[in-house]
Amino acid sequence: MFCPSVWPAVIEGNFSPEIAEPLHQDDQKISLVDNSKKRSRKRSKRRELLCPRHPEQRLFSVSAKYHLYVTEVGQLMLRGLSKRRSDELLAAFNRVLPLNGEWLECFWCDHCQNSSWWHVKRHEALDYSLSPVPRELWEQATGVIRVEGNPTVSDFSRRQARATGVTGLRQYNFI
């Protein structure tokens, strides 16, 4: 609650919320803010990713993360697991195992002035490694459109979808 001697300073606009100056010599200073319990407002550190081609240049993310998953025992064996352990893991996750700490992401390099896709692996909290994305890895990414198209769509439907405009309507000249 404000001391009555502080109100004239509040009305005039000369009031500092941290310490209210006394209006009279016999009044005491009033502290309105408790400085003993200050919270830390520091932000968490951002990922410090450096360009593999230009080690002094920082990379900036320009896309979403496309997380990876594994569907075959051989893919887990390449990551260092035994055949038995790989088979157990895939059976436990219904033949699709999400990989934590691995994803595909597009980054912008100011030195190159272009964006490129990288396979990102997180080793610790702020320790990452980048490598170029091999073609096989795109098949293990979630939310990515397949290059060859949807396998459940017939060739006729695929051709008809591509045939738009006047050239597509020539097939229906009887209309």
Shape call = extended
* Largest β sheet strand count, sense and barrel closure: 5 strands, antiparallel
Cα distance spanning the termini: 84 Å
Q: Which structural class should the secondary elements be placed in? A: alpha+beta
Radius of gyration: 31 Å
Structure explained in plain terms:
By secondary structure, the chain is an alpha+beta fold. Among the domains are: 26 residues, no CATH class; 86 residues, no CATH class. Helix content is 22%, strand content 24%. It has six helices and seven strands, in the order H-E-E-E-E-H-H-E-E-E-H-H-H. The strands form two sheets. Strands 3, 4, 5, 6 and 7 form a five-stranded antiparallel sheet that branches. A two-stranded antiparallel ribbon has the order 1-2. A hairpin with a 4-residue loop joins strand 5 and strand 6. The chain is extended and about 75 Å long. It starts with 6 loop residues before the first helix and ends in a 6-residue tail after the last helix.
Question: Which features characterize this protein?
Answer:
22% helix, 5-stranded antiparallel sheet, 175 residues, extended, alpha+beta
List the helices and strands and how they pair.
Layout: H1 7-12, E1 19-20, E2 30-31, E3 59-61, E4 66-70, H2 73-78, H3 83-92, E5 97-109, E6 114-124, E7 127-132, H4 135-138, H5 155-162, H6 166-169
Antiparallel strand pairs: 1-2, 3-5, 4-5, 5-6, 6-7
Summarize the structure.
With 175 residues, the protein is α+β, with helices and mostly antiparallel strands. 22% of the residues lie in helices and 24% in strands.
